[in-house]
Amino acid sequence: MSAWADLTSGLAALQWAQPLALSLLPLSVLPLLAARRAHLSEAAPAPQLLHPDLHGLLQAPPPRRKPRLAPMLRALALLAFVLALAQPQRQGAWIAAAPEGRDIVVLLDTSLTMSLHDLTWAGKPASRLAVAQRVFADFARARQGDRFALVAFGSHAATLLPPTFDARAAGQMAGLLAVGQLGPDTALGDAIALGLRQVRTKLGLKPILILYTDGGVSNTGSISPADAVALARHMGVRIYTVEVGATPDPGHPYTVSAYAGPQPDLRLIAEATGGRFYFAASAGAQQAAVRDIGALNPRLHPPPTRRAVQALFLWPLLAGAALWLLAMWAEGVALRSRK
């Protein structure tokens, strides 16, 4: 009973990709009709003619009946071919939908202080910038579905990589940065403002900015950090600040003669935008920081909407070919037996 139940449930789950092809099923009886017609024509009464060797005909063996195996095999072969043409298939497991990501803009400091070799990577001394590059590359590879952009800044800010879903390319582009490439100073406000230009705030999940620097003091640039943070708050973009220096930021505003009014440091930037400040004095602390940022900003995993399809047309196709070859063999045997 269990085998019968499995068979019926399997047939019930069977689907047809081309169901209109099943309308050709009546064609499978053509070999049987042709064989019947040939049999009737042979069985029709022949004209009564005098024959000079009538006695020899009376002594001849009766004619052999034409075998009906070959027409039956050809009918079954055509039936199998039609079933294969209808493309039977069976639904498999649900296919997981691609995760819905968010815009992530990484701001990398390339000022001269990022060249200090006070960190280690794989047991070897490494500069602050080199560790930040490797940590970001690993983070990007683990966030398939997010759209990454990369902004580098020193005395001025520049877009190193526009928004892309190619996480591997984002990590590779970060590795091309060099200390001092954009000047020795720190244009923090310009970097934040430029990063905000890369995000989409009206589509999908809320974007975020991740700021890597070894100090929160901006000493140059055309946009003050206070104005850039105010713009981020207005856009609803959270800024996560990761300090890679030797001492943590005290969390106090500072003043710069180039800007009017007090300017926020790394802690205040994160607090003002709803982000979080991280002090990462080691490579492990940087990795822990990006893991926490990823956990605070997860991707959406929508439910699956389609299932895998297992095509089954090959089996009736092979069966039809085997039956057709068997029919040809049966006809050949019948012809040799008549000789």
Tell me what the structure shows:
The protein has helices at residues 2-12, 30-43, 54-59, 69-85, 128-141, 167-174, 188-196, 225-235, 266-273, 283-296, 314-338, and strands at residues 14-16, 88-94, 103-109, 119-121, 124-126, 147-153, 157-164, 208-213, 238-243, 277-279, 307-311. The chain is α/β, with parallel strands linked by helices and 339 residues long. β6 and β7 (157-164) form a beta hairpin. α4 runs antiparallel to α11 (314-338), α5 (128-141) packs parallel to α10 and α7 (188-196) runs parallel beside α8. Helices cover 40% and strands 17% of the residues. It is built from eleven helices and eleven strands. It has two domains: 66-89 and 311-339; 103-296, Rossmann fold.
Summarize the model shown.
The chain has eleven helices and eleven strands. With 339 residues, it is α/β, with parallel strands linked by helices.
What labels describe this entry?
11 helices, 339 residues, Rossmann fold, 6-stranded mixed β-sheet, rod-shaped, alpha/beta, 40% helix, 3-stranded antiparallel β-sheet, 17% strand
- How would you characterize the largest beta sheet? 6 strands, mixed
The residue fraction in helices comes out at: 40-55%
Mean pLDDT: 83
How far apart are the first and last residues' alpha carbons, in Å? Answer: 51 Å
Estimated structural class: alpha/beta
Low-confidence stretches: none
Order of helices and strands: HEHHHEEEEHEEHHEHEHEHEH
Kindly give the count of domains: 2
CATH class division of the largest domain: Alpha Beta
